[in-house]
Amino acid sequence: MNKTELHNYNLSLTLQSGQTFVWDFIDGYYYGFTTNSVIKLKQVKDNLYWQTFPESDNWKLVKNYLRLDTDYTTILQRINKDKYLNSAIKHFPNLRLLRQDFNETVIAFILSARKNIKAVKGSLRELSKIFGEKVTVDNMVFYTFPKLENLASATLAELKDAKIGYRARFIKVTAKEIFTKNLQKTISALSEEDARSELKKLSGVGDKVADCVLLYSLGFDNAVPLDVWGQRFLTSYYGLDPKLPYAKMREWIRDYFEGFAGWAGQYLFEYIRNLKPPSQRLVRLGRKKSK
DNA sequence: TCTCAGGGGCGAT
DNA sequence: ATCGCCCCTGAG
């Protein structure tokens, strides 16, 4: 494998942090699938061992994905402004944000609606198995992330084989929309506000999913996906009214963290999900009875 | 076997 | 702005 230096980067934590669903930890290595490649990674202290398949040695892909061109130290200083962030940073040192492919991010987070992380991972692997391309690495079979044109031309029944339920229609319509209009290119060139607006026109994409794409793919550090957990830390830690609409909550946290709310949100997300302080009762959010 | 929530979004009102 | 519903899974 190739080897390069890697500083202030917790690869394991980052790849398991819920911003991505495509990585598996097998025999000491992380294997992740993307549109054209499977990536194999391992961190040993300040070194990164890496390889790509079937095209080998694609450093550009790895470097871009891991978002190594980031002034992490400065960002940490900016967001470390209260006891919650201070504690989160201590518990989850060197947690980073990735820069994932646009198409992959849109598809993955459309799937995440009303699904848990494990279920999203399962569905993505099913879709890849059905619509991706087989790649054998270390005598194991992986499948590349499905291309949009394949998802767009699939039948709803085929898509539903991936256990994605009502999201099948969203995936099909949005894949076709992005592919035919080349939206990856046009949206990538927009400002954060305009990009959010365009993203929300896509089927299955609302505020939360749009913010995921803005932060995890397009690199807008101040975009914050406020899922149920985000709304919980805002109400539990910072005293926001649970009834505040999404846009108001977003406005508050963006104002508070001044430019890097996305990073702060990622730390707080890990913190509240994994530590769950016993003193704090989790707020129940907007679940209606369903029969 | 049953209940419940899961990193929401859509469409009707 | 609010509300019922959407399909399915994993956990308890």
Q: How many individual β-strands?
A: 7
What structural category characterises the helix and strand content?
alpha+beta
What integer is the average pLDDT? 92
**Major sheet, described briefly?**
5 strands, antiparallel
Q: How much helix is in the residues?
A: 40-55%
User: How big a fraction of the residues is strand?
Assistant: 5-15%
SSE succession? EHEEEEHHHHHEEHHHHHHHHH
- For the termini, the CA-CA separation is 53 Å
| Unreliable runs | 277-281
Number of helices: 15
C-alpha Rg (nearest Å): 19 Å
Strand order, biggest sheet?
1-5-4-3-2
Shape descriptor reads globular
Question: What is the gist of this entry?
Answer:
The chain is of the alpha+beta class and 291 residues long. 48% of the residues lie in helices and 12% in strands. A five-stranded antiparallel sheet has the order 1-5-4-3-2. A two-stranded antiparallel ribbon has the order 6-7.
Walk me through the structure.
This protein is an alpha+beta fold and 291 residues long. Helices cover 48% and strands 12% of the residues. The protein contains 15 helices and 7 strands. It has a 5-stranded antiparallel β-sheet with strand order 1-5-4-3-2. Helix 4 (83-91) crosses helix 15 (261-274), helix 5 packs antiparallel against helix 9 and helix 5 runs antiparallel to helix 12. The relative contact order is 0.12. Residues 277-281 have low confidence and may be disordered. It binds a DNA duplex (13 and 12 nucleotides) through helix 6, helix 9, helix 12 and helix 13.
